[in-house]
């Protein structure tokens, strides 16, 4: 039986009122805290996370969540002023941008630790970038005393999200880079040619020649057994196996360099703005104005 229109409207109004309390301009630390806890739980449940990686995630996560918890005690929600809607919108955008950027930083820490096995120079650089990203936006949250009316010509909301987007691309590309003899510029393409009978719904076709291409991997590793296991999922009676590995330029390296430069430019912008705010204003704890 459908709900009466009045009842449905009342439920919708109540739900809207409840969700308003979770908006960044009213609860600016909930989003970041939520993502920190989710990443910690995912790491705990992931058997591929060794103790070293756990600590690399736990230490910054604990530090962030302690600071956010302290800030929540100092936060005083601002009552919207109907006469200055533009100022209220800017205030909400600034809080959302900082919260989302801080959240993206901790998520990227989890991602780079999840993708890097083992941790190499380029993944270590990406991990360090995540820490810097979190530190900048956490500092920006703690020490801000922004004069919004003097900064309306700059879209902080857009710039912060672009910075976070560049970090995500930077970290993902770093995690997908495979070191080849100490170099991340080259990747290894592997192909296997062999004689085998293909499995089709439990039946074997006539034995014939086949060639299978594999994803990039380390050319220095002898993993013939792994190749045989992979081929064995589809073929039987394998013989005359020949593995060919060719080193070639890895396009992920271009993506890695491109987005690392873009992220660096944007994060330097935020560091510069943080420096100006610190020099031209008094210290304000939390998100109060």
| Share in helix | 55-70%
Largest sheet composition? 4 strands, antiparallel
Separation, N- and C-terminal Cα atoms: 49 Å
- The number of domains is 2
Q: Which shape, going by the Cα principal axes? A: elongated
Mean pLDDT: 76
Strand content: 5-15%
- Taking all Cα atoms into account, the compactness measure Rg is 26 Å
Helix segment count? Answer: 8
Order of helices and strands: HHHHHHEEEHEH
- Poorly predicted residue ranges: 145-150, 283-289
Count all strands and give the number: 4
- Pairing-aware structural class of the strands and helices? alpha+beta
Descriptive account of the structure:
This protein has 289 residues and is an alpha+beta fold. The chain has 2 domains: 21-177 and 252-280, no CATH class; 186-249. The chain is 58% helix and 13% strand. A hairpin with a 2-residue loop joins strand 1 (186-200) and strand 2 (203-204). The longest helix has 31 residues, at 85-115. Residues 145-150 and 283-289 have low confidence and may be disordered. Keywords: Membrane, Transmembrane, Transmembrane helix.
């Amino acid at each position: 039986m459908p709900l009466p229109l009045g009842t449905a409207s009342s439920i919708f109004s109540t739900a809207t009122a409840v969700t308003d309390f979770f908006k960044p301009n009213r609860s600016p630390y909930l989003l970041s805290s939520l993502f920190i806890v989710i990443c910690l739980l995912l790491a705990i449940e992931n058997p591929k996370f060794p103790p070293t990686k756990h600590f690399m995630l736990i230490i910054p996560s604990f530090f962030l969540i302690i600071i956010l918890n302290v800030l929540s005690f100092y936060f005083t929600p601002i009552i919207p002023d109907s006469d200055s809607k533009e100022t209220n919108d800017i205030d909400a955008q600034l809080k959302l941008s900082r919260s989302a950027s801080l959240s993206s930083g901790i998520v990227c820490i989890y991602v780079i630790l999840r993708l890097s096995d083992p941790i190499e120079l380029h993944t270590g650089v990406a991990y360090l970038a995540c820490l810097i990203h979190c530190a900048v936006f956490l500092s920006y949250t703690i020490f801000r005393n922004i004069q919004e009316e003097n900064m309306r010509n700059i879209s902080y909301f857009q710039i912060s999200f672009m910075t976070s987007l560049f970090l995500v691309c930077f970290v993902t590309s770093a995690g997908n880079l495979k070191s080849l003899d100490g170099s991340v510029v080259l990747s290894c393409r592997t192909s296997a040619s062999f004689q085998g009978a293909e499995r089709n719904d439990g039946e074997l076709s006539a034995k014939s020649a086949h060639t299978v291409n594999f994803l990039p991997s380390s050319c220095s590793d002898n993993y013939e057994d792994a190749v045989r296991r992979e081929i064995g999922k589809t073929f039987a009676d394998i013989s005359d196996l020949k593995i060919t590995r060719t080193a070639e330029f890895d396009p992920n390296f271009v993506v890695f360099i491109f987005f690392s430069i873009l992220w660096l430019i944007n994060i330097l912008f935020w560091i510069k703005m943080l420096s100006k705010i610190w020099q031209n204003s008094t210290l304000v704890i939390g998100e109060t104005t």
